[in-house]
Amino acid sequence: MKKKVPREIILVDKCLQRVRKNLRDILKLACLAEFNRWLVINDLYQEKLHQGRITPSQKKRWFYLARRHNELMYAYDRSILECNSGAACISHRELVKEGKIESSERSTNFDMVWVPHYKAWFCAKCYETYYKLKVCENFGDYNEKTVRVFECSLCGKYICDYCENYCKDCSRYLCDQCYHEHIIQNLCCDKKGVIQTKFH
């Protein structure tokens, strides 16, 4: 079975970046035009429904158009046109901070990465920060596609769902070794992240 791995699309050439942006803008405008068209059609059907003048064939057509609209929205949300992180996108927040775009706008000129685990596109910066699958040091890539990977708060070792331990006192994920030392020595982390001994 072919292993599903993230697919990065990185363009260095400025000319190709402009071409990519123009193509994405065309697709985005076409989708937005279709969304606006649906709002007008939906308002007309809603008005007919309230007036009691809608026929069974019109209602069937209305439901069909609503289903197509939802399918288009779903495809748009997971398309390469925008980072799937939405307003939390790191690249988007950087552009807003620099004053290049408004917070309500969404740029289409980011390098994107397809993440099979989430079945969505993310910008390269969000992927590196939030979504890049790290490998559990105990199991290798055994759990790479099926479980989350955490970083031990004390030693920094990568651990997966199967071998992580959660300390309720300090709200941290720990590997087996650090967790046992944590319990045996009765340690706890304060809010600043400094390890302190608990006295009873």
Topology:
Layout: E1 7-9, H1 14-51, H2 56-77, H3 90-98, E2 112-115, E3 120-123, H4 124-131, E4 149-151, E5 158-160, E6 165-167, E7 172-174, H5 176-184, E8 187-189, E9 195-197
Antiparallel strand pairs: 1-2, 2-3, 4-5, 6-7, 8-9
Q: Overall pLDDT, averaged?
A: 77
Strand content: 5-15%
Low-confidence stretches: 141-147, 189-200
- The radius of gyration over CA amounts to 24 Å
**Count of discrete domains:** 2
Class per helix and strand makeup: alpha+beta
Please provide a written account of the structure.
With 200 residues, the chain is of the alpha+beta class. It folds into two domains: 7-131, no CATH class; 149-197, no CATH class. The chain contains five helices and nine strands; from the N terminus they run E-H-H-H-E-E-H-E-E-E-E-H-E-E. Helix 1 runs antiparallel to helix 2 (56-77).
Q: How would you summarize what this structure contains?
A:
It contains five helices and nine strands, in the order βαααββαββββαββ. With 200 residues, the chain is an alpha+beta fold.
Descriptive key words:
200 residues; alpha+beta; three-stranded antiparallel sheet; two-stranded antiparallel ribbon; extended; disordered C terminus
